[in-house]
Design brief:
It contains six helices and six strands; from the N terminus they run H-H-E-H-E-E-H-E-H-E-E-H. It is 63% helix and 11% strand. With 264 residues, the chain is an alpha+beta fold. The strands form two sheets. It has a four-stranded antiparallel sheet. It has a two-stranded antiparallel ribbon with strand order 5-6. The protein has three domains: 86 residues; 86 residues, L1 transposable element, RRM domain (Alpha-Beta Plaits), CATH 3.30.70; 52 residues, no CATH class.
Amino acid sequence: MPSTPMITRSNKGSNLTSTAKKVVTLDDIWKSLVTIQESVSSHDIKLETIVKNIEGFEISIKSFSTAIDNLTTELNLVKEEKASLALEVKSLHEKISKLESEHHCGPATHEYNIYQESLERMSKANNFMIFNVPLSANENSETLNVMVDHLFQDLAIQCQSTSVKRIGPVGSRPRPIVVQLNSPTDVHMVLKSKRKLRNLERWKNVWIHEDLTLMQRKQLCGLRSELKRLHDSGDHGWVIRNSYGSPKLVRTNPGQSTTENTKN
């Protein structure tokens, strides 16, 4: 029996140690829980930030999606317009082929002549001609461009040529020079200033004219013959002027009679 108390004391000591261990463990767990809560809160804040960023990305994506939809719509419209233009071009080619076939098989139709004339006038709308410019020994496209630039400077006009070249067969007379500008407006500016040439020593033997089609040249030739006939008959009240792309005889003083025009 003497050993029983010792066993009891030993059990009591063991229980105290176990209790102390349990208290320490719970405290650590509590601290860990607090740390975990703080970490969770931090992660919650980060998640909120990420969600906001995602929402911002969603707005941007929707904006890009709308822009892409708009571009797709515009692209489809362009494709439709292109297809429509292709059909129109095809139709025009078919008409041209038909007219050319009729032209080769028989007399050219009035419609064909008008169409061809319109195309040729459009191709010449940005051009004008310079006549009687002597051919220099070292002439080339660069020297011709420089010559045209000097002409514009002397006429006090601001234009820029896109192409300058001589045309026609080589002969005893200087070949004419065709000058291409950026627009018909520039051509009109040059033609309005051509009267200054007669007062400029360098250009007094040079003259400027529209780049006419064959039909316009024939018409102009006929008008000059008629103008000469009128002048020879004493009626000097007529001049040739360009009206809506076509040369015409115009009376300079329509209110006066032929006799009065002759006196003046």
